[in-house]
Amino acid sequence: MRKSTKATLLSAIFMGLGQFYNRETGKGIVFIIIEFIGLALIPYFRYSIWGILTLGETPLHYVNDIAVGDHSIFLLIQGIIAIMVLIFFIVFYIINIFDARKTGKIRDKGGKVKTFKQFLKYIWEKYFPFVGLSPAIIAIFFIVLLPIVFSIFIAFTNYSSPYNLPPRALVDWVGLKNFKNLVTLKIWNSTFWGVAKWTIIWAALSTLTTYFAGLFLALLTNLKGLRFKKAWRGIFILPYAIPAFISLLVFRMMFSGPGAVNSFLSQIGLEQVGWLTDPLIAKITILVVNLWLGSPYFMVLMSGILTNISKDLYQAADIDGATKRQKFFKITLPIVFYQTAPFLILSFAYNFNNFNVIYLLTDGNPVNAAYKYAGHTDILVSWIFKMTYDQNQFHMAAVVSIIIFLVIAGLSAYSFSRTKSFKEEDMIQ
After folding, report:
1. Closest CA relative to residue 32, chosen from 45, 50, 13
2. Least confident of 309-313, 411-415, 424-428
């Protein structure tokens, strides 16, 4: 039997044996330690897998002032962590087999096997980026991936108040029932589509208004002959420099019923306006306030682009007799749009999930009697907040979160694929 085959079989039977057979003692010790750690964790894996499959059998209760029983959510989280750790051991098990096979082939050909020190040096030099990124990858698993997987799993349970809320009660798996209810039950269906429609309108209008307002301000501050350009830019950037939550709370007080704006209208003999109580006016108010907050960002971004446009293009256009309007639509706007298109898409994704403006300005109000746990100005993310923080409807909130995640992830992936850095990645290798 060839040495590579023997080494592969030995490593498949027990991690590290193939490395010992190949006379790689250092690597063999490392893999054996990992194997023993995995074997020691078998009771933990068994209990965790049982927990994630059953979500517990006995609700928490007190016996002689001692809490006993199962907490479904703790079991679910523990089960997800156990699966991630198990994946880690499986990856090392596969690496162990392929490593033993690779070294065995070198021995079959009469080659010299690296010492453990030489192997570490080889890994450090060839796979340094992966070694450097490994802490970040581990952090992503437990800080980013764990909450995402947890939310996905919650969407397939009945985790909600008042009957399935731990620790007094257990949570059960319900399959696709929540997704079905979101589509078929009228109260959930009408709320979801109504809020989703406004979310898309809000994200699109808030992005476009801030984008073109920023372009307008950038053009103004770059006009020839304009004096004190730096001062004007400094003034226009102030709304972006001030913390948004302060500005939003100030606007909320200004536009409230007895606020400064309505008081001024009353003093000049005009009727008060329901800035935050009339559904249509409240939505317009949100867009105007967001325009104040967001346009300075695009102004700064586009100012840099405008100053870098070659003057030769405009000189050539002047020679051809082009008007200012033609120069704007044929030269300025295409170049600016080309440079800022990824930012425009990312801004849409951000506004799609812009919780602060909605919550701090209107709290999703005015109330909509036809909606379940949502108001006229609620977007999907603020609706999720209300379902979790106020109503304990975690199962339906998780379903909507998955939909938001798919939309945002798709937009982010698309915007990244459209950037020059992504397209030119192969050119710099």
Report:
1. 13
2. 424-428
